[in-house]
């Protein structure tokens, strides 16, 4: 009888591990850890619709709103510190900020894993994200932006309207092409 119960317990634990791994992969929209082989999920067209307003706290506890970046092209990136596709994207976002920041561009990184400044500040330093505006997301943001996984990236034009939405690991070349278009660069 005990052996039978142990067998059932092992099956339950195994199923739980498989289910947990599946949920982790789904929550990150993980399709591949190789950025050359990864394609992001097609997102519904949002181009031309008014961007969703928000007010979120930065790492110093100060409110940050989309309207604070009026006249700039904003790349909103919803991410998490342990999300593998998010970690792959970070160097590209750093490069985009350096390349296009002086042309009226701003990355706003919305941390969605509930971590506070004590965890996020060292993480940002380690990954060179000091030029970003980083804010802390919450469950309300998940609902408001219709997020189903991470990363999710939205580009907002200078007029406060969406230019694009990408769910899952972005393709660097695709997003850079969009940035060049929306910034009006040759």
Core attributes:
alpha/beta; five-stranded mixed β-sheet; 186 residues; 39% helix; single chain; two-stranded antiparallel sheet
Description:
This protein has 186 residues and is α/β, with parallel strands linked by helices. Helices cover 39% and strands 19% of the residues. Strand 3 (73-79), helix 2 (84-100) and strand 4 form a beta-alpha-beta unit. Helix 2 (84-100) packs parallel to helix 5 (172-183). The longest helix is centred in the first third of the chain and has 27 residues, at 2-28. It is globular, with a radius of gyration of 19 Å. Residues 12-42 have low confidence and may be disordered.
The helix/strand series, from N terminus to C terminus, equals HEEEHEHEHEEH
Mean pLDDT: 84
Oligomer: single chain
The termini sit apart by 74 Å
């Amino acid at each position: 009888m005990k052996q039978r119960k142990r067998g059932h317990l092992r099956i339950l634990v195994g199923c739980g591990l498989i289910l947990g791994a599946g949920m982790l992969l789904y929550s990150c929209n993980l399709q591949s850890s190789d950025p050359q082989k990864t394609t992001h999920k097609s997102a519904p067209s949002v181009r031309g619709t008014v961007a969703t307003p928000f007010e979120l706290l930065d790492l110093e506890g100060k409110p940050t709103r989309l309207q604070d970046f009026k006249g700039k092209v904003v790349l909103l990136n919803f991410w998490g510190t342990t999300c593998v596709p998010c970690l792959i994207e970070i160097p590209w976002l750093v490069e985009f900020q350096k390349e296009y920041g002086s042309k009226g561009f701003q990355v706003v990184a919305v941390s969605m894993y509930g971590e506070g400044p004590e965890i996020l500040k060292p993480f940002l330093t380690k990954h060179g994200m000091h030029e970003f505006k980083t804010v802390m997301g919450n469950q309300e943001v998940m609902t408001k932006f219709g997020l189903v996984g991470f990363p999710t990236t939205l580009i907002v034009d200078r007029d406060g309207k969406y230019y694009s939405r990408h769910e899952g690991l972005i393709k660097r070349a695709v997003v850079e092409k969009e940035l060049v278009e929306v910034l009006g660069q040759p």
